[in-house]
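Hi C.,

You asked whether I'd gotten around to modeling the 167-residue construct. I have! Everything is below, sequence then structure, no commentary in between.
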Amino acid sequence: MDALETLFTRRSIRKYTSEPVSKEDLRTILEAAMNAPSANNRQPWHFLVVDGRDRLDAMMAVHPYARMLAEAPIGILVVADTSKSPRFFQQDCAAATENLLLAARALGLGTCWTGVYPDEGRVGGLKVLFDIPEPFVPFALIALGHPAEDRGRVERWMDALVHRNTW
């Protein structure tokens, strides 16, 4: 799949098949995430890969909008190292998360990004669940797997959102 098709057809997938994600695809996806831009190249991200059913179920109990983990074979928790980038970890981890989503789509896999940071309940619950120490902060939770639905492309162009030379 070419880059523009990947961008235009990436959608949040909430239904997954039982087919496992290959180790090679998982590595490619994580490598793409690690190649995201970051402020001063600080790369303040870690990736907690969760594939144990008990842990995926526990994550759903902490995160009320992560029900798709009931079918997804993998959950990836993007975790920020706030000591590396205290001012810009949000932008840096968001860029890594988007790279992860796009790489998965390019490989024919599905993802759904569920927000964690700055919701204190979700951040705290996931820190406790996975024994995440300071200064690390759970940022985003991604469901990953082979899609059992095709959401297609949606036209999102809006002329009113484009400004030239002045507002």
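If it helps when you're writing up: DSSP finds five helices and four strands in the chain.

Thanks,
B.
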